[in-house]
Design a protein that fits this description.
It comes from Neomonachus schauinslandi (Hawaiian monk seal). With about 500 residues, this protein is mainly beta. It has no helices and 48 strands. A hairpin with a 2-residue loop joins strand 44 (about 450-455) and strand 45 (about 460). The chain is globular and about 75 Å long. The model has no long low-confidence stretch (mean pLDDT about 90).
Length: about 500
Amino acid sequence: MPTNGLHQVLKIQFGLVNDADRYLTAESFGFKVNASAPSLKRKQTWVLEPDPGQGAAVLLRSRHLGRYLSAQEDGRVACEAERPGPDCRFLVLPQADGRWALQSEPHGRFFGGTEDRLSCFATAISPAELWTVHLAIHPQAHLLSVSRRRYVHLSPQEDEMAADSDTPWGVGALVTLTFQDGQYCLRACDGRYLRSDGRLVGGPEPHARYTLGVKAGKLTFKDRDGRYLAPGGPAGTLRAGRSTRPGKDELFDLEESHPQVVLVAANHRYVSVRQGVNVSANQDEELHHETFLMQIDQETKKCTFYSSTRGYWTLVNHGGIHATATQVSANTMFEVEWRGRRVALKASNGRYVCMKKNGQLAATSDFVGEDEEFTLKLINRPILVLRGLDGFICHRRGSNQLDTNRSVYEVFHLSFSDGAYQIRGRGGGFWNTGSHGSVCSDGERAEDFLFEFRERGRLAIRAGSGKYLRGGASGLLRADADTPAGVALWEY
């Protein structure tokens, strides 16, 4: 399987919350740090980096400043080091309740405090030296077992999650990390939670919560009994084993989850590579050969379509479209035109992709008609988490409206019908638009929304009024944006 950016390990970004429920913050003035912020923004986001010397220590880099947290021998802390030195090395000590203690590796003292009175001088761990870890990355990703080099996915037949897949293909490979009382749960694509004995359960019960740990830049998941999740047996079933110390079997990477889509042509058949390298609309059901990974180039906004069994779609002689390319090039890039419930694709020769009479696709049309339009369906987000420039979308407390600036996220359920999506929240209520562009979450009837995948990892959501959903100063979700950019784009 060619790489070309298909498998990208996510940098571990997070916020650290102290015992007073305030976030560790890096300030530009004097490169000082404090714990005064009530929510997670850019200044409160830290990037975890492994020790370059391959030791057990980690480095904490401020996403805001691009500099490293350091602790001197006298306990003074700052975030001014442009390059990591010995004073920047910390040991992460996960506690039973899910919180972390951070210990200066060279000096042996613990980091903690309140407001602007932070230091790294404590000789023992007290509540003031404990930090709750709040992941700042998008919580929906692929989970890779480091030892087996296999991806975790839902196995409905065995009713388990297993690390036995060579590629993170299909909806079953989506894993959602949910934050619950200072710990994390692993949620399968069907909404169930992984319990430490390997069973899937309906809610985030205590045995389905894990303490995040870090070793050699990789993630570990420790259950309430102090045992670590690991793939076991020939099937790679994910459960807590006997180990109370993480080795290679207990290490995991999180990888970016790109959209996987199916396309339906005007003949109501799925676009497929089942019968060979020709990309053709000739199948009546959506299976592995009908699923394509869609990647958007950040500069050109053009996209590629990748088949795990064949390769990238590419333009060949006489306008034909074959799934044979192993590398991204100009001929594998397609411009997407969003046409309401349908899309049109323009190839590198400047012509639109159409369906020929035999079902094969070719870029030979100068205009868009029925044969040049396709229905594009996102298949690997049955549950959806949305994050904008200011934070995650969540229900507003005591209201039917939706906030767009929350540091905690909420999971919404997604359904699809004839080129449009329906979004359902907790309690089963549907998203709907009201007067003056307001968006509510308690609709009895589903309203259709159009998804437009505009940038890598970001989509625009268009309401029935033709306006795009956006965040803004009010913190409320509204459907009144004219263009799909800025506050009208959502990480998904």
